[in-house]
Amino acid sequence: MKNKQKKLARPRLLVLGCGDVGLRLLPLLNRQFRVFAVTSQPARVAELRAAGAVPLVADLDQRDSLARLANLATHIVHLAPPRSEGESDARTRNLTAILPDKSRLVYISTTGVYGDCGEEEFDETRTVAPRNARARRRVAAEQLLRAWAKRSHSSLSILRVPGIYAADRLPLERLQKGTPALIEADDVYTNHIHAEDLAILIKLALFRASPSRVYHAVDDSDMKMAEYFDAVADAFELPRSPRLPRAELSAAVSPMLLSFMSESRRLRNDRIKAELGMRLRYAKVADGLQDALKRARPVPSQA
Fold this sequence. Notes:
The chain is globular, with a radius of gyration of 20 Å. The longest helix has 20 residues, at 133-152. The chain has a seven-stranded parallel sheet, sandwiched between helices. Strands 6-15 form a two-stranded parallel ribbon. It has a two-stranded parallel sheet with strand order 8-11. By secondary structure, it is α/β, with parallel strands linked by helices. The protein is 36% helix and 18% strand. It has a domain at 9-166 and 192-220 and 266-281: 3-Layer(aba) Sandwich (Rossmann fold), CATH 3.40.50. One of its GO terms (molecular function) is aldehyde dehydrogenase (NAD+) activity.
């Protein structure tokens, strides 16, 4: 009987950084895995348990607190972002010291590692060229994980993710405040992925991704940034953002927002379709906005 129970036992999966996307991922994996979700906030334990995970409180910035995670699971989803300072990712460095050999890890990185690419369309073979410390930390994390995978004989897949949106992750407050966008001549191309599609992609990568493979987790949209803001404004009947030339915009927005509006990227997503078999639920931003409107305006009951 005990041997039979062992055969039926689900493999363990460790989710690091279980925020919004992690919570969307949990119901997709609970049948295949016994999922352990790491949080640094004890107040989130009940939420994670209700979502079907075994909550673990640990601080990724403190190596001593990670000891209980060592050899806990051979499947890992790494969603935790680096800290907001420095040129490397100490959190990922700490993790590589305790992760077991012969593991399967999916790392959620960022498309920002490519820097500014102008109007050129490109695939995953493009060389990274980060322009800011935030992106350099992500490149450092990727390099740390590549080195770990090689020495531990583990399988690593990297999903490079752009702006994540969903019904509850839209720039409505930005539009309501009238934050300006760039004029057409100065505007940059931007990429998007719906949070639900990203969760599905992570699941597919766990089962289907090739070792040491990079994937662009982006949808089929081909939009400039102000065009995206206009689409959201029109869908929710809000005023469109005023447009300013870049020279004037720098005095009107925060340095963080300006950095996002200073890099242009047009990423191809053929690989997620051909290799992972991804069928996007929200192939374009317009599809996601239509869904968001349905959620915001529920159909009246038929009395």
